[in-house]
């Protein structure tokens, strides 16, 4: 069953190169995303019923942590596949892209999905590194899809910075391999999570520390942790909005997944304090770096990108704090952010296509011009900034409560101040965009029904999870906490 997670997106990608008709490509897009989501549900149900996937031939290992990220990829990938249809149609109608190019959009989109599934299903650190590098190559071509000066520049910056980062991660992986060989023996099995976890207590602590620093900087670059985040605002700003949604909602989580796995190995070998403190430091730096850029932003999609830097920092702080409550909050926040930020990038796509600009100063009166999109903009912003009764308030409150209950008062106070200030900055711009009179020449109404329904469903999820976490989801989160918070696999 798990092999289908890789076969389906690869097959859809290859089929997209054969057909040119837009309607056929749209059907393939929806069919591929639907099949992937069905497989994701089957695998998640199996894993969360305590039937882990662990194939002896070495490729697959899926525990609750893996299954949880797989679920996020499947959900956001499915939502984005739906949004792709209306968005690409409008780009063709507006003359932004030619119809014959859309097959390559869908091709690289499904290669991107394939590579992210591979990241979180393999149990081999070397294969995971290859998969994360593959996500860079596939998504860079999507970032450059509009083929203009700014998108090409953003794609090159993305490739260069993330490639340098991934080399750091590769070096850290080499160090762990070198340190583990005397214990586990040579061969590819040395880089399996299970073997590394078992050998961690016997590995030289100095090599474990050195390896983790390189891994954290390397995969932290891909995750958007500051100060290695500089590719992220340009890539998110210039990519097609559906691609921005997947970059922010899913790709960053895949990079965090690699960091969390490495954190578990280091914690098993030398205790939790070393890697936890590094995660807290990088997390707070990310939140602090995002703050001034939020206040001086002029581009709507860049504003959302810096918000992603903040939220990745929040998750890193929570993982660093450790303990069941903080890790529960981190996993809940990972899910909430994925849904919330995807929603906001869909909103950004609707707005930028209608207003023909990403400049915040030129976007006024969205609630009147596009009522459904305007509602999603306003309430999506309330949610992403952590206002009750939305879901991110619950996850942030859980993380903050854990920090205070652990006596980490300095970390918790800094966390609270940064979250509050970023809330003020984002809402200042969003309120200006949502209210007021739209430009006189702007056509009112006429929103795509399918896209509008998608936005309302996602917004409903954010509200629902803010007032009630379904028992099955709570059970899933607790099983993930058992892996991450429990320090075992």
Report what the structure shows.
Strands 1-2 form a two-stranded antiparallel ribbon. It has helices at 4-18, 22-47, 64-93, 102-121, 125-143, 149-184, 193-199, 205-223, 231-238, 241-270, 273-295, 300-321, 323-355, 366-369, 371-384, 391-405, 409-434, 449-467, 471-484; strands at 53-54, 61-62. Helix 16 (391-405) packs antiparallel against helix 17. It is globular, with a radius of gyration of 21 Å. It contains 19 helices and two strands. With 489 residues, it is mostly helical. Strand 1 and strand 2 form a beta hairpin. The longest helix is centred in the middle third of the chain and has 36 residues, at 149-184. The protein has a domain at 272-489. 78% of the residues lie in helices and 1% in strands.
Ordered list of secondary-structure elements with their pairings:
Layout: H1 4-18, H2 22-47, E1 53-54, E2 61-62, H3 64-93, H4 102-121, H5 125-143, H6 149-184, H7 193-199, H8 205-223, H9 231-238, H10 241-270, H11 273-295, H12 300-321, H13 323-355, H14 366-369, H15 371-384, H16 391-405, H17 409-434, H18 449-467, H19 471-484
Antiparallel strand pairs: 1-2
Helix pairs in contact: 1-2, 1-4, 2-3, 2-4, 3-4, 3-10, 3-13, 4-5, 4-10, 5-6, 5-10, 6-8, 6-9, 7-10, 8-10, 8-11, 9-10, 9-12, 10-11, 10-12, 10-13, 11-12, 11-17, 12-13, 12-17, 13-15, 13-16, 13-18, 13-19, 15-17, 15-18, 16-17, 16-18
